[in-house]
Design goal:
It is a single chain. With 93 residues, the protein is mainly alpha-helical. It is 85% helix and 0% strand. It has 3 helices and no strands. It is elongated and about 55 Å long. The N and C termini lie far apart (57 Å).
């Protein structure tokens, strides 16, 4: 195995782990969305988002990741979650 193939194999393994963790995360956010819909709560919680982005920046720095990269990725994740929560709220109305 060449160095490039080894690096790509490592990337593939990390991708497998990321997808498994994303699936788990989305399972929990779905439950949050159902809870919000059942309790007539807003789909978006700006205070929680701010806390999340502060935590993400801190974790990024602790792990040697550019915080901007992590924030961009999490902005996408959170936007998808908010969109799903809006769908769940609309279905309850």
């Amino acid at each position: 195995m060449t160095k490039l193939e080894e690096l790509r194999t490592n990337i593939d393994e990390v991708d497998r782990q990321i997808i498994a963790l994303l699936a788990q995360r989305f399972k929990y956010t779905e439950e949050v969305g159902i809870y919000k819909a059942n309790n007539h709560l807003q789909a978006q919680d700006a205070s929680r988002e701010n806390q999340q982005f502060q935590k993400i920046a801190q974790l990024s720095e602790q792990n040697g990741l550019n915080p901007e990269y992590a924030s961009d990725i999490y902005r996408c994740l959170i936007d998808i979650v908010i969109s799903r929560h809006k769908e769940l709220l609309a279905a309850k109305c």
